[in-house]
Predict the structure.
Amino acid sequence: MLLQDNGVKIVDPLGDMLEAAWEGYTDRLINVANTHEELLAQVKEMVENFHVDLAQPARVVVARDTRFSSLPQSLFLSFFFPV
């Protein structure tokens, strides 16, 4: 099942939304993330395409809303980004 309104947001260090070009990546993150390997491959592609400096500190914030997909997504991510 492909999710069009996936609720995933990628923000800059100040918490502001990134430009619309990132929306395609959020769709792909959710729709390919069936395994750890698929999620990792998608993240690596984003790192390469956007020249992300992995030496810089980063934070992953996971929140939920009322969408049907929200609970499964947050549970899935909690395996990769434990508190």
Observations:
- The mean pLDDT is 76.
- The domain at 1-68 is CATH 3.40.120.10 (Alpha-D-Glucose-1,6-Bisphosphate; Chain A, domain 3).
- The CA atoms of residues 43 and 49 lie 10 Å apart.
